Amino acid sequence: MNGTQEANSTRLPEFDIKNNPYSSVLHSTLQARGKIVAVGGGKGGVGKTVTTLLLGAACARKGNRVVIFDADWNGANLHTCLGIDEPQKSIYHFRHSHLALKELLIDTPFPGVEMICGASGLYAGHHPTTNEKRRLIRELKQLPADLVFIDLGASNNFHVIDFFLASDIRLIVTTPDITSIQDAFYFTKLAIIRRLLHAFNNHTQIRRLLFNPSETFGESSKISIVDILDILDYYEPGTKEFARHLIKNFQPGLILNMVRDKYDLYEIQSLKIAMEELLHIHPQILASIDHQQTEYHSNQLIEQFINQRGIWSSIEKLAKEILKQQKMLKYASLLNKKPGSEMFRSSEKEELICSVRCTHWNECNYQHGGQKCNLYHLQATI
Questions:
Q1: Owning domain of residue 66
Q2: How far is CA 104 from the centre of its chain?
Q3: With the C-alpha atoms ordered 149, 28, 186, 246, is the resulting torsion angle positive or negative?
Q4: 358 — pLDDT class (breaks 50, 70, 90)
Q5: What is the mean pLDDT of residues 290-299?
Q6: Buried b (16+ CB within 10 A) or exposed e, 162-186
Q7: I need a labelling partner for 88 at 20 to 30 A (CA). Which of 78, 97, 152, 206 fits?
Q8: d(Cα 306, Cα 223) in Å, to the nearest integer?
Q9: What is the rounded distance in angstroms from the CA atom of residue 150 to the CA atom of residue 153?
Q10: Higher pLDDT among residues 304 and 171, named by residue
Q11: Helices 130-142/158-166 angle, 10° precision
């Protein structure tokens, strides 16, 4: 059976975001409330864990109840940063003792911040099954918290990327180091391919292509998004626009850590341009955090960072941005669910135009007066 015949025998469902969820495992569509924030990037040592802790502490200081989940399956260490040598409860007990996530919450030294410890020591190295991921994501959304930060492991494997995709707000942390920049790029590229894989999971030929693209294109790092879109349209005419829609609205936030001088800032700009031109997405540069030569000690770690004005100032601005995006996502979700709401329905006859007269102008992160309202784009950060 050739590719065209196989494609015809496995027809895709109608391309509609509401009726065709692209992931049966990670369905955070149209229900995004800005509650789940993933912090990833692929490379280890770029400061994901410290950034997650500081962001959690900053958001808690603004009156939010925060949970930080250590999703490193190969050697979690977030608890060590908080001075906890051997946690009594961890994700291991979620898997083997069938405890609910809320039963694994432990207090931290910081008011308003709780955490769920990841797997470490003898329990490390066991990735979650598909059913466990379903349960994890469902229970993360049900935790009694305003914000849940996921500290992702240093890896580009699909276990890490699936949690990244399941989140409402996605942050990528990198340093100016060229290997970190490259890893951040490939992490994002693999996340896009994984997202498309979820979308076309019922199509045998396309699923095979996206699951192992190197078999079709050779070295996977040389596969362009344009190549992938073209091959999708070859196997199933009409899929390209649907895929473009999913990719276009994939807008991660970029954080440059360990900045030493103004020249380091050029690296994050280059990464942003590369993502726009080669991956066809529009990431936002959310923060740059200065490098500090300081020795840190376990549970004093956050206080030491907080006492350094440059770092803490950057973290507070980043926290403010996250809370603003969370508020906008909540607002967008409510509008989308409200009966008769026309806000997210595209229409050639009528479009919502951004204006200073909008009641949300002062708190909106997408102020483009006179242009089409950018809230339209929020439904597909899903």
A1: 3-349
A2: 23
A3: negative
A4: low
A5: 54
A6: bbbbbbbbbbbbbbbeeebbbbbbe
A7: 152
A8: 42
A9: 9
A10: 171
A11: 30
Q: Tell whether 374 is covered by a domain.
A: no
Structure tokens belonging to residue 300: 């004093």
The answer to the question of residue 63 being in a domain is yes
User: Measured between alpha carbons, how far apart are the two ends of the chain, in Å?
Assistant: 35
The residues, any chain, with a CB within 8 Å of residue 46's CB and separated by 6 or more, are: 173, 174, 175, 180, 257, 258
Q: Which of 120, 112, 34, 121 is nearest to 68 (CA)?
A: 112
Residues 6 or more apart whose Cβ sits within 8 Å of residue 339? none
Give domain status of residue 26, yes or no.
Answer: yes
Higher per-residue confidence, 253 vs 296: 253
The helix or strand, by DSSP H or E, that contains position 37, with its residue range, turns out to be strand 36-40
Sign of CA dihedral 270, 273, 279, 283: positive
Range 374-378, long-range pairs (CB < 8 A, 24+ positions): 375/328, 375/331, 375/332, 375/335, 375/343, 375/344, 376/343, 376/344, 376/346, 376/352, 377/249, 377/251, 378/32, 378/328, 378/329, 378/332
Two structure tokens written together for 373: 């309202």
Decide: residue 199, CB within 10 A, 0-12 exposed, 13-18 middle, 19+ buried: buried
Is the model more confident about 144 or about 343?
144
Assign 256 to helix, strand or coil. Answer: strand
Contact 160, 71 (CB under 8 A): yes
- 324-345 pLDDT, tens digit per residue, is 888 888 776 665 543 333 322 3
370 in helix, strand or coil? Answer: coil
- Domain CATH code at residue 246: 3.40.50.300
What pLDDT, on a 0 to 100 scale, did the predictor assign at position 80? 80
Domains held by the chain: number: 1
Q: 200-233: per-residue pLDDT in tens?
A: 877 777 777 777 666 665 555 567 888 888 888 8
Of 291, 233, 305, 334, nearest to 30 by C-alpha is 334
Quote the tokens at residue 381: 């950060």
Instruction: Tell me if 363 is assigned to some domain.
Output: no
Q: Does the pLDDT value for residue 181 go beyond 60?
A: yes
